[in-house]
Write a sequence for this structure.
């Protein structure tokens, strides 16, 4: 693969990208990665959104950052973009993986999780930005559901 990369996971603030040309050019990006030898290209769907922002939603939910917490997310825009991303992935011969499916159930999403250092931290900080612990949380969930694709990324 390109400089030794076999797998590339493409992820972004897809809700914002859909308002400009980024989403439309995603097929070109995938084709470019294939030209340089990347064999596995995964499109990772959008991050749950919290309006007006995550800190305010955590305050409203009474989060004390001393226990895990699930709260209702604003998923309509994310799920719309995910449907578009799924079509792009299928048209380009690669998998689409849902971030929402990894952290949400019935519209309630992991908002605060137990971190590796024993503290409790948010999964996302603001719309489109995942914390380090949030990224690892999602990766572990994805590795559990698809060890062949994501398990090796934990090594």
């Amino acid at each position: 693969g390109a400089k030794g990369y076999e797998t590339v996971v493409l992820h972004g603030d897809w809700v914002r990208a859909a308002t400009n040309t980024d989403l439309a050019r995603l097929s070109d990006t995938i084709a470019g990665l294939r030209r340089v030898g990347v064999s596995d290209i995964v499109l990772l769907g959008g991050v749950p959104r919290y309006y007006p922002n995550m800190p305010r939603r955590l305050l409203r939910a009474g989060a004390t950052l001393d226990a895990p917490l699930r709260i209702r997310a604003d998923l309509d825009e994310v799920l719309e973009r995910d449907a578009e991303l799924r079509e792009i992935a299928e048209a380009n011969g690669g998998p689409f993986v849902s971030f929402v499916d990894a952290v949400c159930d019935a519209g309630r999403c992991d908002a605060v999780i137990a971190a590796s250092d024993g503290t409790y931290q948010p999964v996302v900080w603001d719309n489109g930005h995942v914390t380090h612990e949030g990224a690892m949380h999602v990766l572990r969930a994805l590795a559990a559901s698809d060890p062949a694709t994501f398990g090796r990324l934990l090594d």
